[in-house]
Amino acid sequence: MSVEQLYQDIIIDHYREKHHSGLRAPFGAEVHHVNPSCGDEVTLRVSMDGDTIGDVSYDAEGCSISQASTSVMCDLVIGRDVADSMALFDEFRDMMESQGRIEPDEDRLEDGIAFAGVAQFPARVKCAMLGWSALRDALIRAGVELPASRDDKE
Amino acid sequence: MWNSAAIRADFPILDREINGHPLVYLDSANTSQKPREVVEAVEAHYLRHNANVARAMHTLGAEATAAFEGARVKVAEFVHARSSDEIIFTKNASEALNLAAYTLGRRLKPGDEVVISVMEHHSNLVPWQLACQASGATLRWFDITDDGRLDLEAAQRDGLINERTKVVSVAWVSNVLGTINPIRQIADWAHSVGAIMVADGSQGVPQRATDVTALGVDLLAFTGHKLCGPTGIGVLWGHYDLLEQLPPFLGGGEMIEVVRMEGSTYAPPPHRFEAGTPPIAQAVGLGAAIDYLNRIGMDALAAHETEITAHMLDGLGALDGVHILGPAEAVDRGGAVSFVVDGVHPHDLMQLLDSRGVAVRGGHHCAAPLHKRLAVQSSSRASGYLYTTPEEVDALVEAVAWGYDFFNSRARRSL
């Protein structure tokens, strides 16, 4: 696994462009998540539209993996219903924890498949999950009922 | 004469290849590599002399005790302590600083002040926050100047150290900026108001010949694993007259004199502060590390460190988009060089450098308030030691330049 394969153009593009970044109002809940070991941090807001995620807005600072992953996540979940968004959360997390054994589904994860290579670097998996974990926490704080997930045990 | 090849031959790990490149280990401020004889000393202890210390009366117990107490004598001589009774073994520098903060903290009361600095490692910051919270004392700190030195003028102007000050605790050498702080001057200032002076020697003791009397401090904390020793062994040196007055830190075996259900009396220093079975093999390893460093010579080592640091500052300083934190010249400066690279987060840079075999640290280096003060989110840090060569520094500089292009030229292309 080379760094060229790790840092695919998709990741670099999202790192630069940060889709949907900036904090917007109104919002249902706001959370602040950090990776204490490295200092990646994100403030993330979610706004619901019935059962659908109406908007996710964020202000984040950190490495290309954490920033690009949050950008890709927003592309995926904004306008999507909560149940399917959380199914994507599980699929993305499973891919990240598979150390490269799971072949990602491009129809489902879209640009998210670029992170398959990150799964080969255990130290960076937390970076890729930062935005996703913040989203899940924000949904819970916004009072949204989430389908059961492995995370509930943690 | 500095014999780089001979020194490197003592460190088998330096022969490793990482990702198809020779290892360039520039994370020594995090932990140093270990010479073969330190590892062999630990192995020989476990394989030939292992027993508990002080309480085992058989032959092996006597050997283990002699080795453990012998290491204490070596440490005492290494820092020019008056007696080995001034050397307290802990598990690391953090525990040593917690011991200092807890025991001195028991004397604090509301209205008292403790002074640290904004450049402290979390281990010389959080214990004092805890001590102040528990006692109602106030925590104050030195600010820094734009070039990363303690702002002594502002401290003087603001009366930072005054008649309310009971403890001053400052890093000898900054683990981020590399700055060597004027410990003697600050100690004299602290003593003029009757305060206790503590120094965090975690970065200083491995890099510089240490004389606790010349430093002028009352307590000095440092760790074994940054000076070629094993992990799991730290040291608090303290002036005996002060140690004698301090209450115990942890309670348990070995730190007592007489134990009754109604109450106990405590052993004199240093055993008063060493509850339970101590890190015996680790102390033996630390003793071997000190023997090794003494043969190299700490003054020669310091000169080498300064040379390597100057080379690093020159090389990194000449690169586009690279900004060095802290003093830009190798004057009153230790071996840690932290820097930020435009458009490349330290995590990403660390990953890119690792792909070329270059090991550096990226993040806030356990000094988050300092990074906030410098208005940077995090940084990369390269730090050499006695085994580091100028060629390794060149490999670092080349890899950083490549990393800058990797992110910045690709980003421009794709936009």
From TrEMBL, chain A:
Query: Gene3D superfamilies in the record, alphabetically?
Result: 3.90.1010.10
- List the Gene Ontology MF annotations in alphabetical order: iron ion binding; iron-sulfur cluster binding
Tell me which Gene Ontology terms the entry assigns under biological process. iron-sulfur cluster assembly
Task: Tell me the superkingdom of the source.
Answer: Bacteria
Show the Pfam families listed in the entry: NifU_N
SUPFAM superfamilies cross-referenced by the UniProt entry:
SufE/NifU
Domain NIF system FeS cluster assembly NifU N-terminal as annotated: residue spans: 7-127
Q: Which NCBIfam families match?
A: SUF_scaf_2
Quote the protein name from its UniProt record: SUF system NifU family Fe-S cluster assembly protein
From TrEMBL, chain B:
Catalysed reaction equations from the record: (sulfur carrier)-H + L-cysteine = (sulfur carrier)-SH + L-alanine
State its cofactor: pyridoxal 5'-phosphate
One Pfam match, given by its short name, reads: Aminotran_5
Q: What is its EC number?
A: 2.8.1.7
**Gene Ontology BP annotations:** cysteine metabolic process
Task: Tell me the domain of life.
Answer: Bacteria
Q: Is Transferase one of the keywords?
A: yes
Which InterPro entries does the record match to this protein? Answer: Aminotrans_V_dom (IPR000192), Aminotrans_V_PyrdxlP_BS (IPR020578), Cys_dSase_SufS (IPR010970), PyrdxlP-dep_Trfase (IPR015424), PyrdxlP-dep_Trfase_major (IPR015421), PyrdxlP-dep_Trfase_small (IPR015422)
Keywords, A to Z? Pyridoxal phosphate, Transferase
Molecular function, one GO term: cysteine desulfurase activity
Q: Where is the Aminotransferase class V domain?
A: 24-396
Q: What family does the Swiss-Prot or TrEMBL record give for this protein? A: Belongs to the class-V pyridoxal-phosphate-dependent aminotransferase family. Csd subfamily.
State the protein's purpose.
Catalyzes the removal of elemental sulfur and selenium atoms from L-cysteine, L-cystine, L-selenocysteine, and L-selenocystine to produce L-alanine.
Which NCBIfam families is this protein grouped with? sufS
The protein in question is named Cysteine desulfurase
Protein source organism: Brooklawnia propionicigenes
